[in-house]
Structures are given as structure tokens and as C-alpha cells.
Amino acid sequence: MHGHSYRLEVAVRGPLRDEGPAQGMVVDFEDIKSVVRERVVDVLDHRTLNDVVDNPTVERVLVWAWERLDGTLQGLDELVLWETQDSCARLCRDDVAGAS
Q1: Is residue 2 part of a domain?
Q2: Alpha helices in 1-100 (DSSP H)
Q3: Quick one: which H or E segment has residue 91?
Q4: CATH number at residue 34
Q5: How many domains does the chain have?
Q6: In what order do the strands lie in the sheet with 87-92?
Q7: Percent of the chain at pLDDT above 90?
Q8: Could you tell me the residue range of the domain that residue 34 belongs to?
């Protein structure tokens, strides 16, 4: 058993908002951080990944995270999960079966 300090990159796509506090943004970074923290980070932090994701390869963890975020995070377009400084996997909306 060993641990990793993963890093998750989240990209959103969509039109810039014309009004409100997020005017000029697709999604406010604070909103992204809040959703990702609640739906992914807080669920996995200091847990044994095998208890949450079956055979938790970086790719399977990405799919799990996508399923937790899609529909909750407006404009979700891409996730990149870094397992080490030079090893990562990327999942884009076009890669997800049935993506809208």
C-alpha cells in the first residue's frame, strides 16, 4: 500500500457570462473549486482508493471523477489527473460515451 499526492486539473468550456458576479467568466474559479472539493476531493482525501474506485488506475479515477462532476459542474470539458510530476491521464468530453 502506498500513497500519492494527486493533482486534478479541471477545464470548462462555454460562453462568457454577460451579467452578474461572474460577468466575463465561463464559471467562477471559486465555484469550480467548491464543486470539485465537495464532489471529488473530500470523498477521496485520506481514503484508500480501492474502497471507492474498483481497480483505481489513474484512468479509472478520472472516469469516476467525471461521473461525479458531469451535470454538476457547468461546462465541464476536460479533466487531467496527475499521479506524479510527470505522469498523468486526460479525459475530454469527446472521449466520454454519450457526452452531450
Answers
A1: no
A2: 29-36, 42-44, 58-69
A3: strand 87-92
A4: 3.30.479.10
A5: 1
A6: 7-12, 76-84, 87-92
A7: 84
A8: 7-95
